[in-house]
Design a protein that fits this description.
This protein has about 525 residues and is an alpha/beta fold. It contains 17 helices and 22 strands. Its EC number is 1.1.1.95.
């Protein structure tokens, strides 16, 4: 992938100093401004290419729209709940986090709360009761078996706990290798003495522990949430605590932080923390370092790590991917120019051929859509937002790959009002070239660079003399020429020219079709 230009980064919260140091060492100007209001952030963000946040800064749609130069939003921590990822994606902004930065710290706090609940290690709870229970032989249910869930399991197994779990993504054999038996939630609830949740907050996990699920649990079950407020229904938890169905809760997160409703915080069987999961020196140093290095690696074209909305870019960091991206975008631009009077598009079908392009079809599709949707030199679509923008405009994008031992090419076909138009291109000697246009094969590959003039007409000496006459009259120099094989008596021509014609209308009487563009 071509390196992104990120020259100025704003850090809006307290992030470990190593973050600023690493960014500055790699030529990026850094400004730190903390505790800004939303209005202040909106006024400030337009001056930066990148934004680094933790949890307090709310990167809303309004903030993103104000960031006219923003290319990346980095969260120094796990999750991106405080970032409007959809709005960022539509604006072509990469959003990344540091998924492993606070893993150990969050796992250790979870274990601390589990142990505290077993022995009531809280000043208030110790006043009320002294008799605790051993963890040995108890069953711990872990909902969410990612990095943190795995670390919690390994630590609590050392106390002799049996660990069971649920995760819709982690394969059963993988979690079994950690000593966690996976099962459905319906099977898990009744077996647990303790339950800890480690999932992201999304519609499918909101209120995961609710009145119905508490009713299926053992009476007196204890629960811990160091993940996200809202995974446990707070009203249902309070009812379960009051009835004794839930014997205790360890909460590091709440729906509202800090919570204005103190019913849970003040409950005698609740141990609460003010969102301390990542609040260790080690975690903050790790998150600050990781987000800085991830930004630097992306800017220098080395790698893309931690991106939550730009998976299409992951395979664009090979040495030759940049030219293939240029090819896809250029082919899209050619089709846009040659079908300008026939919009709107209904479908784009991109096919890659050749073993080396097996992992490239995704970014080739996005690149082709970038070319099709581009409107002049202003900030337009990019690889991050191309497919969402296509979907918004009603364009269906289909991607295929076919094995081929003969050649490595990209085929882009667009459908417009029931008709289809096709380009075939490749990269030769490091240069993107057009091989075919609408079934016509060019005798010499057309380098997709500079100003290009395409026209379709019957082959005749008079035609070419007339076209060069139009160019000369406009003060435009002919720099290269390629003609296709004849198709039904007509053929496509491409001329490389020194500048675009001010008025292409003069060619309309000479050719059946004519289009010009800059790539």
């Amino acid at each position: 992938m071509a390196p992104l230009s990120v020259k100025r980064v704003l850090i809006s919260e307290s992030v470990d100093p190593c973050c600023k140091t690493i960014l500055k060492e790699n030529g990026i100007e850094v400004t730190e401004k903390q505790q800004m209001t939303k209005e202040e952030l909106i006024a400030e963000i337009q001056n930066y290419d990148g934004l680094v946040v933790r949890s307090a800064t709310k990167v809303t749609c309004d903030v993103i729209n104000a960031g006219s130069n923003l290319k990346i939003i980095g969260r120094a921590g796990t999750g991106v709940d405080n970032v409007d990822v959809d709005a960022a994606t539509k604006s072509g902004i990469i959003v990344m986090n540091t998924p492993s930065g606070n893993t150990i710290s969050a796992a250790e706090l979870t274990c601390a709360l589990l142990m505290s609940l077993s022995r009531w290690l809280s000043a208030l709870l110790m006043i009320l009761q002294f008799m605790g229970a051993e963890l040995y032989g108890k069953v711990l249910g872990i909902v969410g078996l990612g990095r943190i869930g795995k670390e919690v399991a390994s630590r609590m197994q050392s106390f002799g706990m049996r660990t069971i779990g649920y995760d819709p993504i982690t394969p059963l054999e993988v979690s079994a290798s950690w000593g966690v038996e996976q099962m459905s939630l319906e099977e898990l609830w009744p077996q647990c003495d303790y339950i800890t949740v480690h999932t992201p907050l999304m519609p499918s996990t909101t209120g995961l522990l609710n009145d119905a699920s508490f009713a299926k649990c053992k009476k007196g079950v204890k629960v811990v949430n160091c993940a996200r407020g809202g995974i446990i229904d707070e009203a249902a938890l309070l009812r379960a605590l009051e009835s004794g169905q839930c014997g205790g809760a360890g909460l590091d997160v709440f729906v509202e932080e800090p919570p204005k409703d103190r019913a849970l915080v003040n409950h005698p069987n609740v141990i609460s923390c003010p969102h301390l999961g990542a609040s260790t020196k080690e975690a903050q140093a790790r998150c600050g370092r990781d987000i800085a290095l991830q930004i630097v690696d992306m800017v220098t074209g080395k790698a893309l790590v931690g991106a939550v909305n730009a998976q299409v870019l992951v395979s664009t960091f090979s040495p030759d991917s940049h030219q293939w991206i240029r090819l896809g975008e250029s082919m899209g631009r050619v089709l846009k120019a040659c079908t300008a009077s026939k919009e709107p598009y209904s479908q784009v079908h991109v096919t890659s051929l050749g073993e080396s392009l097996k992992k490239s079809s995704g970014f080739l599709s996005s690149a082709a859509v970038v070319g099709l949707l581009a409107e002049g030199p202003q900030k337009g679509p990019n690889l991050v937002n191309a497919l969402p923008l296509a979907a918004e405009t009603g364009i269906t994008v289909q991607t295929d790959h076919k094995d081929s031992d003969e050649r490595e090419v990209c085929v882009v076909e667009v459908s417009v009002n029931g008709s289809s138009f096709t380009t075939v291109g490749s990269v030769q000697a490091g240069v993107p070239v057009l091989l075919e246009l609408n079934g016509s094969v060019f005798r010499q590959p057309v380098p997709l660079t500079g100003h290009l003039l395409f026209f379709k007409a019957s082959n005749s000496t008079e035609l070419l003399l007339s076209v060069t006459g139009v160019l000369a009259a406009a003060g435009v120099e002919l720099q290269s020429f390629s003609a296709s094989t004849a198709s039904s008596g007509e053929q496509w021509y491409c001329m490389g020219i020194s500048s675009l014609l001010g008025d292409i209308g003069a060619l309309k009487s000479l050719a059946k079709e004519a289009a010009q563009l800059t790539v």
